[in-house]
Amino acid sequence: MTFNRPEKLNCLTRFELSLIIQQLQKISNSDTVRAVIFTGKGDKSFSTGMHVNEFDQLNPQSAYELISELRMACQLIRTIPQVVIMAINGHCIGGALEMSMAADIRIASKNAVFSMPEINLGIPSVLDSVLLQKYVGLSLAKEMLLLGEPVDVERMNQFGFLNLVVEQDQLRETAEVFANKVVEKPFYTVRQQKELFQTWQNTNLDYAIKDSVNKFALTFSTEIPQKRLDAFSKRE
């Protein structure tokens, strides 16, 4: 899935956001799609998030409706059974960074720049910004959300926000390597693991471990583990 408005640094309109939601909903019900790669057209920008015009003349009700649509996009990225990979080229700003925080794997080019500038418009950063402190630490998260200033890829990744940083011309190929590795894994098990990540992030320790034990047991209601074990034994 490609953000494709390079002349506007791949910013998003509300209509384009609705198309992303529709496509993700469709993908979530697919048994053939195993991984999704997001990237931006061109080499300057992944996406600068929602176009500022989308915030013009909002009232509390219309603002709630808009942010709820972005919330849906982030939630789908976070919860669909397919692995979602962000191939981040250039500017990754606002809603685009929130969607990236919801993803499973993040790969960035060396020219990537990250920012949450909403505070400069008198708007708080919300949604998956909740996760920012887990990714980059509380101090940098507060700096980003309170100052709204850009952070380069090296500093953004000092706490492991990104899985990999590569040259611009290697970005797409690297994302596809990750995707192809995911495709080799049993889809049922990938789905289970993504569900467990949600449990681990949103429940207490005892429940998280209990759910893990249940999912481990349920795996053996399928033939997947035995087939994989048999194949592994033959390689020895």
UniProtKB/TrEMBL annotation:
CDD domains membership: crotonase-like (cd06558)
InterPro entries for the chain: ClpP/crotonase-like_dom_sf (IPR029045), Enoyl-CoA_hydra/iso (IPR001753)
Superkingdom assignment: Bacteria
Pfam families assigned: ECH_1
Gene3D superfamilies: 2-enoyl-CoA Hydratase, Chain A, domain 1 (3.90.226.10)
Protein name stated in the entry: Enoyl-CoA hydratase/isomerase family protein
Organism: Halobacillus shinanisalinarum
